[in-house]
């Protein structure tokens, strides 16, 4: 118990020094094959933040699907936590699938436009979008054996629960990191499984993310470069 208490205290102190700018690059692989790359930029100015994530097809996948996917999140920083105000997705070659969600915190509603149709969903406190979730880790003031986060997922909002699996030394192209390894808790075999490794000495930034979908298609996103200030 003392070890875990010290671990969470360390994570808390590291996250307190959330940087104002982050630039990160990842590779996406399935098995031994590289199929994509991700470039991300986070900027905080005062109580506002912006995040842009651009995913491009690479390798063999590019021969069949040469596309670019951009996700953007903008919002504010409230009590040290990220609070998204808008989230959007855009595909360079298929704008029919574009999405935009706006978060009305005063009324507790998320409004989404997808396929030209509008919808609303109840907005729980502390909800994150798909991109802000990753950067919320850098803003969190404490970590426990379980993390519970409401997350916007297309038209709806789902509650994601992660449990601490281990602390591990992880080697990536960007260097070696002492990490907290969290795994999503799923109860339905049709749910997406996910694991995330947070670098304790780099403001708990995600340095590796693994997705396993129900069809056993496994994607790994691994950090190759990280700059911050």
What does this structure look like?
With 229 residues, this protein is mostly beta strands. It has a single domain, classed as outer membrane lipoprotein receptor (LolB), chain A (Clam). Helices cover 13% and strands 59% of the residues. The protein has 3 helices and 14 strands. The protein has helices at residues 2-16, 59-64, 132-139, and strands spanning 21-30, 33-45, 48-57, 68-78, 81-91, 99-104, 109-114, 117-122, 146-153, 156-172, 175-184, 193-199, 205-212, 218-228. The protein has a 14-stranded antiparallel beta sheet. A hairpin with an 8-residue loop joins strand 11 (175-184) and strand 12 (193-199). The longest helix is centred in the first third of the chain and has 15 residues, at 2-16. It starts with a helix and ends with a strand.
Instruction: Give the averaged pLDDT, no decimals.
Output: 90
Text of the CATH class: Mainly Beta
Q: Say what oligomer this is.
A: single chain
* CATH architecture assignment name: Clam
Q: Low-confidence parts, pLDDT < 50 over ≥5 residues?
A: 1-16
In summary, what is this structure?
By secondary structure, the chain is mainly beta.
Break the fold down into its secondary structure elements and pairings:
Blueprint: H1 2-16, E1 21-30, E2 33-45, E3 48-57, H2 59-64, E4 68-78, E5 81-91, E6 99-104, E7 109-114, E8 117-122, H3 132-139, E9 146-153, E10 156-172, E11 175-184, E12 193-199, E13 205-212, E14 218-228
